[in-house]
Amino acid sequence: MQTIPPVALVTGASSGIGRAAALALVDAGFAVVGTSRNAAKAKALAGVTFLDLDVSSDESVRALVEEVIERFGRIDVLVNNAGVGAVGAGEESSIDQAREVFDINVFGLMRMTNTVVPYMRAQGGGRVVNVSSVLGLIPAPFMAVYAATKHAVEGYSESVDHELREHGVRMLLVEPAYTSTSFEASSLAPDSPLPVYAAQREVSRDVLANALRNADDPDVVAKAIVAAATDAKPKLRYTAGSMAGRVSLLRRIVPARAFDTQIRKLNRLAG
C-alpha cells in the first residue's frame, strides 16, 4: 500500500530561505507546494510544485489554498516565509509605505494562516511555521518598520499557538539572524528620505552590508524550518544559526542598559 506523503506549503519559495526550505522539506519526505508572485518564472525544483500567490491579496490567498486542497487533499505544514525588507529611519517611511510592508510581512502571514488553519483543524492537526527574525526580539535602528513587522509576528505567533494547541495545530517561530539572500538588494528604500538622517542611513547600510558578508547560508534556516515541521515535541521558537542563538540568549540575560549600549555600538550610533 502506497504511503501518501505529508504536504507542505511554502510561501516565497522561488529564492533565498523559501527555496532552501522547499528543497529541505522535499528531502524530509514532504510533497511540497512552493509559491511565487510569478510561478511561471520560478526556477524548477525537483519535487516542488510552484503556484502563483500574492500574499497581500485575499482572493489570491483563497484561490491558492483551494487549489492546493483540490490537488493534494490536505496541508500538513504551512511555512509563512514571504516577506519584504525596508531600510531607513522610521520617520522616513510614509504610512502608505509602512502599510505596504505590514501587508506582506504581517497581514499576508495572517491571511495565509486564517485560510489554511480551518483545513488543519478539520484533518486533526498541522503546523504553521512562521519565519520571523532576531529583529523581532531586538531594536533595529534604521530598519524600524521591518523590525516592527517581525515584533508583530512574534506576538501574534506566540498568542495564536496557545489558541490552536487544543485543536492539534501548532504555530511555531523560526528566527534567523543575517542570512545570505538578496534581502539588502530587494529591501524598500525610504519613500520620504530626510537630509537629517542621510549620513547615518548610509552608515547603517554599510553595517548591514558588512553583516551580510558573513551571513548564514539559507540552508541553516531551512534546517530549523524542517525541525519545526517534524519534531515530535516542537519548541515554540527555533533560532537558526549560532548568531541568532547568541542574540536571543543575550536579549534575555543582559541588563537593559548594557544591551542598549551594545546596540548603539554595533550600529555605530553616537551617544
Automatic annotation (TrEMBL):
The record's listing under Pfam families reads:
adh_short
| Keywords attached to this entry | Oxidoreductase
The highest taxon in the source lineage is Bacteria
Q: Which CDD domains match?
A: 17beta-HSD-like_SDR_c
Named from the GO MF annotations, one term is:
oxidoreductase activity
Q: Which InterPro entries match?
A: NAD(P)-bd_dom_sf (IPR036291), SDR_fam (IPR002347), SDR_oxidoreductase (IPR051911)
The record's family statement is:
Belongs to the short-chain dehydrogenases/reductases (SDR) family.
Concerning NCBIfam families, the annotation shows: PRK06179.1 (NF004823)
Protein known as: NAD(P)-dependent dehydrogenase (Short-subunit alcohol dehydrogenase family)
Organism name: Glycomyces lechevalierae
